[in-house]
Design brief:
Elements (H helix, E strand, L loop, with lengths): L1 H26 L7 H14 L3 H29 L5 H5 L4 H33 L3 H24 L4 H26 L12 H25 L1 H9 L2 H14 L1 H10 L2 H11 L2 H20 L1
Helix pairs in contact: 1-5, 1-6, 1-9, 1-10, 2-3, 2-5, 2-8, 2-12, 3-5, 3-8, 5-6, 5-7, 6-7, 9-10, 11-13, 12-13
Length: 294
C-alpha cells in the first residue's frame, strides 16, 4: 500500500535511497551477534522445563547484552557519521537526494538501534509461544506508520520524516509491547541482579551460530539493492524493490505458517516429545514446497 504513495511522492531516486537504506539495515541485522534468536531459543527451552526463574534470567541477561551492543554501535555510528560520503554511498545526483540521504540514514539507524534491546521482549513472547500478540502489535505499528506516511506526504515533508514515520511507528509498537508484557506478567520484569553470566555465555555461544545464518541470509536476500545502487543507481533500486516485494508474498505466506513452529519445536524437545517434532517438521516442509511451487 505504501509503495505507490511514497514512490509517486518521492520520485524514483529518493525512493531508491529509502529501499537501499532498508536493505542496509536488514544487512546490519547481524549486529546483535545472534543474541536475539539465541534468546528466543533459551526462553522456549526454559518454558519447556516450566522454569520461570530461568526465563527471567534469559530475558534480563539478553536485554542487558543487547543494550550494550546497541550502545556500542550507536557510539560508532555517531563517530563516523560526518565522515561518510553519503552521496557516494547511495550514488545519488539530485539536490534533494544529496541533502536527505545522510539524515534519513541517521533516523533509520537510531530506530534500528533502539529496537534492538526493545526486541528482546518480542523474542520472549515468541519463546513463550505468544507470537500472535507480537503480530497484533506489529500490525498496529504498521498501520500507524502508514497513516503517518500519508500525513507526512500531505504536509510535504522530506525523506527523513517519511523514514521516521515508517520506522518509528513500529518501534513505538515494540516498546508498548514490552511494557504490556511486563505489566501483565510482572515476574518477567528484567532486573540487573537476575543477569546471569553463565546464561550470558550460553546466549553468546548459541548466538554466534545464529550469526552465521543471519549473515548468510543477509547476503542472499538483502545485498541486491545495495549492489544495484552502487552499480546502476537508486532509481534502478526502486524498480527492483517493487518487483521484489511482489515475489516476497509466497515467503510471507509460508512464514505465517512455519514461523511459530520454531519455539514450539524447542519446547517440545525440552519435554522429550520428539516424534511430534519429526511429524510436524515433515508436514511443514511439504507445505512450504507446495506454496513455493504454486
Amino acid at each position: 500500500v505504501s509503495v505507490p504513495l511514497t514512490l509517486g511522492y518521492l520520485g524514483s531516486e529518493r525512493f531508491g535511497v529509502w529501499m537501499t537504506l532498508s536493505a542496509l539495515i536488514a544487512l546490519l541485522g547481524f549486529t546483535d551477534l545472534g543474541i536475539g534468536n539465541s534468546l528466543l531459543n533459551g526462553v522456549a527451552h526454559a518454558a519447556g522445563r516450566d522454569d520461570r526463574t530461568q526465563v527471567r534470567a534469559y530475558l534480563s541477561s539478553g536485554f542487558v547484552m543487547l543494550l550494550v551492543v546497541a550502545a556500542a554501535f550507536g557510539l560508532l555510528f555517531a563517530a563516523v557519521y560526518d565522515h561518510v560520503p553519503w552521496a557516494r554511498v547511495f550514488n545519488v545526483g539530485s539536490a534533494a537526494a544529496l541533502d536527505e540521504a545522510g539524515p534519513a540514514a541517521a533516523v533509520l539507524v537510531v530506530c534500528f538501534l533502539v529496537a534492538m534491546p526493545a526486541g528482546a521482549f518480542q523474542q520472549v513472547r515468541l519463546g513463550l509461544q505468544q507470537g500472535y500478540v507480537n503480530s497484533m502489535f506489529v500490525g498496529g505499528g504498521n498501520l500507524m506508520g502508514l497513516v503517518l506516511v500519508v500525513v507526512a506526504i500531505q504536509m510535504r515533508l522530506g525523506l527523513p520524516w517519511l523514514v521516521l514515520a515508517m520506522a518509528g511507528a513500529p518501534l513505538l509498537a515494540t516498546l508498548v509491547n514490552g511494557f504490556a508484557l511486563v505489566a501483565r506478567s510482572p515476574w518477567l520484569r528484567p532486573r540487573f541482579h537476575d543477569v546471569n553470566f553463565a546464561v550470558a555465555r550460553s546466549l553468546l555461544r548459541v548466538g554466534l551460530l545464529f550469526l552465521v545464518l543471519q549473515l548468510a541470509g543477509a547476503v542472499a536476500f538483502t545485498s541486491n539493492s545495495i549492489i544495484i545502487a552502487a552499480m546502476i543507481g537508486p532509481s534502478a533500486v526502486a524498480s527492483y524493490a517493487v518487483v521484489y516485494k511482489l515475489f516476497m508474498i509466497p515467503t510471507l505466506l509460508v512464514g505465517f505458517a512455519v514461523g511459530p513452529l520454531w519455539p514450539a519445536y524447542r519446547e517440545a524437545l525440552s519435554r522429550g516429545v520428539v516424534q511430534w517434532v519429526r511429524r510436524t517438521f515433515d508436514r511443514s516442509i511439504r507445505l512450504s514446497l507446495s506454496v513455493a511451487g504454486l
